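Open question from group meeting: does this chain pack into something compact, or does most of it stay loose? Before anyone orders reagents, we agreed to write out a predicted structure and look at it together. Recording both the input and the output here so the notebook holds the full record.
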Amino acid sequence: MKRIIGIATCAVMLSALAITATAKPPVVPVYEAAADINNAGWLTAPAEDGRYYVVYTGTKGMTREQVAQFALLRAAEFTAESGLEWFAVTQTKTQKVALVLKDDLKSRSGSIIGGPGGASTGSGSAGASTSPRGAADASTAGGASTGGFGGGAPPTQVTERWVPPMVLQTVLVIQMGKGDDAKFPGLKKAPEIFSAKTTAEEIRAKMTP
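Structure tokens returned:
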């Protein structure tokens, strides 16, 4: 009986160790600029009435609060970079969008899935949202080194099964200014005003481990 109990205990311990060893660490959000609107990170663009769009697209696993905080941080830093003191959020929206990954099959350039015999340069075309990896063997057309798809586009069944991950994205419309003069044309009610310096410092402090 003792032997049976001992074996069972060892089995439980080994199972626990296996789960611990294979468990993935939690995803740590990275605050960074986005290459374009389809990639994770922040973007800013002019809006109407002298205002600006501030967009933050999260990565898989980021919460609604994290994405909203990163958008607010970018708004604060953008205001400071513009030489202004405060910003007001006149509009805000958080939604789910499809995220284009760097190794997205549908948007890779010809360097990986290009024509027969094409050698990979390891870099995508300018402005592309992909960064193909690896080097193709130009002497082996259609082989694994030219992308594994025999040259040309990947099979239809591959692209049809591929579904881009859905992530959270926060879009802010902000108005920036300095001093006590704050007018908001087109708004019936004055929005909340944030200090650029204080807001950035507070969010940055929360991000510090």
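Observations to bring back to the group:
Residues 2-22 form the longest helix (21 residues).
Confidence is low (pLDDT under 50) at residues 1-10, 16-21, 104-151.
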